[in-house]
UniProtKB/TrEMBL annotation:
It comes from the Eukaryota. One of its GO terms (cellular component) is cytoplasm. Transmembrane segments: none annotated. Gene3D superfamilies: 3.30.70.2000, 6.10.140.750, Potassium Channel Kv1.1, Chain A (3.30.710.10). One of its GO terms (molecular function) is cullin family protein binding. It holds the Pfam family BTB_2. It comes from Eudyptula minor (Little blue penguin). SUPFAM superfamilies: POZ domain (SSF54695). Residues 2-51 form the Potassium channel tetramerisation-type BTB domain. GO terms for biological process: proteasome-mediated ubiquitin-dependent protein catabolic process; protein homooligomerization. This is BTB/POZ domain-containing protein KCTD2.
Amino acid sequence: QDETGAYLIDRDPTYFGPILNYLRHGKLIINKELAEEGVLEEAEFYNIASLVRLVKERIRDNENRTSQGPVKHVYRVLQCQEEELTQMVSTMSDGWKFEQLISIGSSYNYGNEDQAEFLCVVSRELNNSTNGIVKEPSEKAKVRHLRRC
């Protein structure tokens, strides 16, 4: 305690910011530059049990994410006509996501009208197996009523 009655706590101020913000609004916010382990040490020093749990959960989640490796994607390019585009995108399933639409013009006639053609790029995350071998999903993007894929 100093001469004014204030308590002096000799701790690293770098890691006190997340502690103070947690006490202010109840959310755990840690800058990317800070080591979560340092915030954990401070939370344990100040005996803030709820914050200790949150930081430990975040560390565990980050370790799990790191052990799984980077997320990998498989991409597919589907060719379709303008009239088939909406149906193709709406019938994608099993984790397939629309990425990009590329117009390749109107290279042929269908009936009396020119038909615009597109390349539709879709992606899906690859599943990681337990032995570390990455396997491509066996399901294909569901595309119905397309003449050319």
